[in-house]
Fold each of these.
Amino acid sequence: MMSPASKQLPWKGPRVLRLGSLSFRINLRMLLLGAIAIVGSTVVTLLAVMYGDIYMSPAAIREALAGEGTPIERRIVIDLRLGRAIVALLVGACLSMAGALTQSVARNPLASPDIIGITSGAALAAALAIVLSGDVSKTNIGGKADSLLKVFGLPGVALLGASLAALTVVVLTLWRRGTMIQFILIGVGVSIFLSSVTTWLLAWADLETARQAKIWLTGSLNGRDFHETWAPSAVLLLSVMLAGWLAFKLSALALGETVAYVLGHSVRLAQGTQILVAIVLTAVAVSVAGPIGFVAFVVPHLARIASRTSTPPLMLSVLFGAFLLGAADFIARAVIPWEIPVGIITSLVGAPILLYMTIRMVRRVTIV
């Protein structure tokens, strides 16, 4: 007879599903959490489409989606609200998966794409394009910046800056033949330098141009629609297709580089591939919505704690990230009396969690 301590509820821990000669290992707890996140994302999206300056009833939403109703209703539902809500889900999913990969590869709970220079590179490139095109548009440099914005748009310029910053960190790490810890430290140094240049640039610009750049640098989904969904959708789809292979490699790397090597894994290839995927996910997300802070850091922790796993689960992080950023954008746009950038909401939530994690790690090191 089983003792009470040995009893386990069916949704706790992994289970094996057998179909003839085939067997599959499933985690009912993760499936339940994933289902809750999907339902939550659906509810948040519906609320985001319904509420705003003009209330849209479910019947009006249904008519607008079917191509009926007035042109104004279709414009509000499809272009202004639904597109923005979907962009929020996609950006949250991209940032969260990037954060889960970075923390797992670095084996450091404080690691995040925000600190390895990608976000700072995108912010500097966008701020540079905005300031030059707005302040000195009559000069040769300003004219080139304005032309660059017209051709690629602000997301394209930000993506270019994020890619160059990430490439700089990778090249410096490979040149020094550094470890993953050195990769993180080099990223911190590059991020601090780029952030300093961005701050100087905003101080140099006139007030109106600096205000426009500051809004984007805070992280905002204002004005986003279906035109901004294709890039994060494509990158996220490819990353999800690689999720099985990535999770398999991460489970081996979690045991340590030496153990993973003994088990037959190409450690450098696995680490490089996972960091590359994280870089692309972060760069695309930042290029679409600006540098939204703390999502890539907080969500993997929440997914790991909820699922009770040793490393952040990739797919659960994706679902959690979509829900949480969608909810944060709904609060920033419709719940608060005046609209604010969503990056402010995520920072208010993420900063206390960062402080808690830092204090917890310091106490653990002190005790050891």
Amino acid sequence: MLNINSRALSATRQLYGELRGAPLYLITLENSAVRVELINLGATITAVYAPDKAGIQKNIVAGFARPEDYLHNPAYFGSTVGRYANRIAEGRITVNGTPYQLPVNNDGNHLHGGFEGFHAKVWEVTQCSDTSGEASVTMEYVSADGEEGYPGNLAVQVQYVLDDTNQLSIRYTATTDKATPVSLTNHSYFNLSGFEQPLVTDHLLTINAQAYTEKSSKNVPTGNILPVAGSSLDFTTPTKIGQNIDSFPADMGYDHNFVLQASGKTPAAVLEDPQSGRVLRVFTDLPGIQMYSSNYWDGSITGQQGKPYVKHGAVALEAQAFPDSPNHAHFPDTILQPGNVYQQIIIFAFDVQ
């Protein structure tokens, strides 16, 4: 485990601009080993500095060099995505018998909340503080009835908490005044070498899933849940990401939803970089995790690390509900009802070995 000295955790925020009259903040959560940088545009993680086995800190997530570049973030670097993460087929949903048409922004489907989803919104920073055991920031956003086609006024809160064991917890809460689908996630991309290695194909990945949701040629679930055993999606033991990455030419890599086992204290996923020794463990109470291997990165973006982001240069491990769940009655329910509270958690635990 990483060594932590007695230095207290800290949480700070700094004003860097405004957008549509709302303040924009740089936020830093830090302990003696790990530093997490965020902005309230999209409630976005912009950097995670974590040490390797020699104690050298590198930023292990993809992000832009300047905070103003997040005004246009088509790859969703580090952002909070919603109202519904992943795809909804043809943007069509029916809630309590009423049909709704959501905007289609990805090959005929609705993706990550639409053209102006939560990743593009300025969130209000309502709390930024530190104690002896954790540093945290809370951000809130109210999505109006009809925004991006969704029903109901949805009040959303995301809290990022860095503790003294190098765990970054992301806690989501939401309430609504009208039944509406909700699935929130964080869209960070990880390269545990700090992008010193341009590809993550030699990273080892383990996913605690015996099955995945089959998808159609239009990249949405067919409704079938299939076993990973015997397929190129079997990550039940540590497997190099690049080992079978060419098995999906239509996707140009991995872009698949895994059906997580009830985990308890078992990580949903473990990512390891044998060269640097950095390890990421992902814990969640969400039912699925989307693995995406940055298939469309083309080197046109030079990131915060000063390195071009190339195809398969990082991997996103997006804990979330199943894609297109509102259109599959046997998938876990994602309709939030008035009077109920949406509460989910994702934990990124950073370590070395």
Amino acid sequence: MDNSSRTPNRAKSGDGTLIAYEQWGGAGPPVVLVGGALCTGATDAPLAALLAPQFRVFTYDRRGRGASGDTAPYGVEREIEDLAAVLAAAGGSASVHAISSGATLALRAAAAGLPITQLSVYEPPFTTNPASREEPAAYVARLRELVEQGRPGDALALFLTETGMSPAAIEGVRRTPMWAEMEAVAHTLPYDHEIMGDGHVPVEQLHSIAQQVLVVGGGASPDWLRDAARVVSECLPRGRHRTLTGQTHEVTPQVLAPMLAEFFAGECRSGD
């Protein structure tokens, strides 16, 4: 796609923070993409480029990331206001696709009444085990401590360890350009933990969402993520569930884009 159709800009959030966004494509209904932990608008660029022939796609840097500003103190409500500002820039309302903790943010935004016309979420990382405890307090406290001490690399390593990555794998990532990109936004990891709350499926909140919501899981993802996607879809009044065969939490844009295009065009069939 011709990069000239991209429009770098800033949207002013409710507390005055400037949120950087880009537009892909010049015609079609608007779609806003919301990234998860350690993601920036650039992370969503491949998916945006695939959707741009049919939609006006908006990618943005979440608060504290990339070219976006950040204003203390942090609050999940501020991130909801950030998304509202991008929706306003998109014309007042838009369809939204979000992934991982960004999916949780988008669900919370829909429950808060933001003008989201249709919503697609990929693997919101909730636990479905009612006996599981809240996130380990010691881990979250240590993560915040490392960020406050100006040690984003150590915070990143702690986060990756908590997600199940082995020490050898982490050392391997350290030797790649990807490490510097993730380290640059690692100070926002506590934000994602606040968005997730206690990590359990927010049943009552999901019951309040009126929009049509497509909940997608990867067929090769861990069982708990696939279970969460199905449970979330069942809690939504207008939820639909789909499984992308062979996909993991790192979903391939070329596989995801056709399904999103069908859904946002109103053609997605229910069921797997």
